[in-house]
Each structure stands twice: as C-alpha cells, then as structure tokens.
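Technical note accompanying the year-one report. For the benefit of new consortium partners, we illustrate the data format agreed upon in the data management plan: each record pairs a sequence with a structure-token string. No post-processing was applied to the example shown here.
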Amino acid sequence: MKNQVESVIFPLPLPKEIADYEGLISALPKARRDKILRAPEGKKQQSLSAYLCLISAVKNKTGSLLLPEYEEGSFTQLKGGLYANISHTDTAVMAAVSETPVGVDVQSVRPVEEKVILRALGEREGKAVLSSPDIPRAFALAWAKKEALYKAHGVGLNGVAVSEKGYAYQTGFGTDFAYAICYKTEE
C-alpha cells in the first residue's frame, strides 16, 4: 500500500472568523491545552493554529473530526496509529498526517547572513544555497527540509546523524514561507 500524506498549511494571521483563540483553547485535550498555555504570549496563537491544521489534516485523512492526541511519550505518533507532525512560524502554520513517520517544517523567508548559512547547513549545502539566485528562499527551503527530516526520525537537531535513505520529501513555497514534509517510504 502506498503511503498517502495529508497536509494542511494556513498562512498567518488566521481570519478573525476562526481565530477565537480563547474559546478554542478551552475545548482542547488537556495535554495540548496545557502546552499552548505554557507557550510565550506571542507563540500561543501560532501553536493553536498549528493544532487546528492538525485537526484538519486528520479529518481529511480519516474522514472523522477528532481532537488528535499523541501517544504517551511520543511527539510524532497519534493515538490510533497514525503519525503526525506540526510546525509554525510567524507567517504560516502546517501539519501533516501519515501512516509512516512524518516530519514537517515551515520557515519564513527572510535575509540570512552567509556565516549563518554555512554554519547551519555545512559547507557543501551552504555553498549551493549561496549560489542560488534567491538566497533567502533557498535557505528557508534547505533548512525546512533538514528540520523535517530530523522530525521524521523523531529526533531534534542535536548532532545525531540521520539518513535520507527510505524517506521522501514534498516541498514548496507560500508568499513568504517555505515548507517541507518528509515521510518514511519503507519499513
């Protein structure tokens, strides 16, 4: 069976009609509600909006309007067996749901210093970005791919080496953001 990844992206800010953040937070599962309430003030709306993306992706994938909850101790596997991941930045939020491990990342497109690019991506990948005609977009996409890969592996960017073998990407751009979805293609 071919893995079908369902993803949803919302540009920010959300329209006022669906941005009743206080009312929505109170309806969330306790673990998600507590996580959002612990977020810094400017990140609460991003975090809630990303969770709304997740609800939408799960509904699109399963046909059921459920409030997704993660398995105990996991930040990628939902109760019921699906895998999911969310990401948010100041310009967009996104979520993806899959039958196999999945990671997503969304990055705002903005100017970045050359030394930051080289440190973040390494010399080979950094030089490829620096040779791009649109360095901010190229860096945002390269960084989103790197983050999504690590998230699909269930680890953070902590120096642990991970492989792209057995994983595939879906990537793209919005008006002012780049996104990447990375998912496992084989067991």
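Partners are asked to follow this layout when depositing records. The radius of gyration is 17 Å.
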